[in-house]
């Protein structure tokens, strides 16, 4: 590895730690990782959950695929390599925000199991809650909120997840949301209850 890479570095701890920040905020840092097809409802549920948590007086921050691809990840496309790098970077951001004591809601297609598992492995036990936002391809395609499935079927977008690119569902997610049969509000409430019961909403 060349000299521009991570050689000769020493971690430097300050005088304040995560427990101090969590006490200050009255909550526990955690990352809620929502994975699923485009059009599954990830962003809709994330926004509702964010609102519920703010109304409860909790500090939450949303990381969303489309949004981060406009900034931090604007140099990445949709090849398998770029998706892996997208998730790696976002995972590192989520880890930092979790250490800051925030409740992070990350919504990314994150189609590869190994990429999601790598984020989980990098985070502390209980810090990563995987939420499978489950919908059939037929239903996602029927919703097609951004008109992207139509474009993918017409060959105007290639490597579109579910059409001509893979999606690997989680094997052991903490939560499965069935967005074909539950409303976005019901799905957001389920995640909220999981956090509440798990003690994340107090320090
Ligand atoms: S991921 O696969 O790397 O996790 P991410 O969640 O960041 O994807 O971004 C997905 C969003 O990018 C979709 O919601 C859609 O709006 C847009 N998009 C554009 N091209 C593609 C594509 N080929 N496959 C999937 N999503 C795409």
Notes on the protein architecture:
It is a single chain. This protein is α/β, with parallel strands linked by helices and 203 residues long. The protein contains eight helices and five strands. The protein has helices at residues 18-25, 42-55, 65-68, 80-99, 113-122, 137-143, 148-153, 184-197, and strands at 30-35, 60-64, 103-107, 128-134, 175-178. It has a five-stranded parallel β-sheet with strand order 2-3-1-4-5. The chain starts with 17 loop residues before the first helix and ends in a 6-residue tail after the last helix. The structure holds adenosine-5'-phosphosulfate (ADX). The site of adenosine-5'-phosphosulfate (ADX) has 19 residues, from helix 3 and helix 4. Residues 38, 65-66, 69, 78, 83, 86-87, 108-111, 146, 148, 157, 159-161, 165 line the site of adenosine-5'-phosphosulfate.
Summarize the structure.
This protein has helices at residues 18-25, 42-55, 65-68, 80-99, 113-122, 137-143, 148-153, 184-197; strands at 30-35, 60-64, 103-107, 128-134, 175-178.
Biggest sheet, open or closed, and with what strands and sense?
5 strands, parallel
Sheet with the most strands: spatial strand order? 2-3-1-4-5
* Helix and strand run: HEHEHHEHEHHEH
The helix tally amounts to 8
* Portion in helices: 40-55%
Low-confidence stretches: none
Total strand segments: 5
* Bound ligands, named by name, code or SMILES: adenosine-5'-phosphosulfate
What is the strand content?
5-15%
The gyration radius over C-alpha positions equals 18 Å
Mean pLDDT across all residues, rounded?
96
Helix and strand composition category: alpha/beta
Question: In one word, what is the shape?
Answer: globular
What gap, in angstroms, lies between the N and C termini?
41 Å
């Amino acid at each position: 590895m060349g000299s521009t890479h991570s050689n000769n570095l020493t971690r430097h701890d300050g005088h304040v730690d995560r427990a101090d920040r969590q006490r200050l905020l009255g909550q526990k840092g955690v990352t809620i990782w929502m994975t699923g097809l485009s059009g599954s409802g990830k962003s809709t549920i994330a926004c509702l959950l964010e609102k519920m948590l703010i109304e409860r007086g909790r500090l939450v921050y949303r990381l969303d695929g489309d949004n981060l691809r406009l900034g931090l990840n604007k140099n990445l496309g949709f090849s398998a390599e770029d998706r892996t790098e997208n998730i790696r970077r976002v995972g590192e951001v989520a880890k930092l925000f979790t250490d800051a004591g925030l409740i992070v809601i990350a919504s990314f297609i994150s189609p590869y199991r190994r990429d999601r598992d790598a984020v989980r492995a990098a985070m502390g036990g209980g810090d990563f809650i995987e939420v499978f936002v489950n919908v059939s391809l037929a239903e996602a395609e029927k919703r097609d909120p951004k008109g992207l499935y139509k474009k993918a079927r017409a060959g105007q977008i290639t490597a579109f997840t579910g059409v001509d690119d893979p999606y690997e569902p989680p094997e052991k997610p903490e939560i499965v949301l069935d967005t074909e049969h539950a409303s976005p509000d019901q799905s957001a409430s389920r995640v909220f209850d999981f956090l509440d019961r798990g003690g994340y909403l107090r320090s």
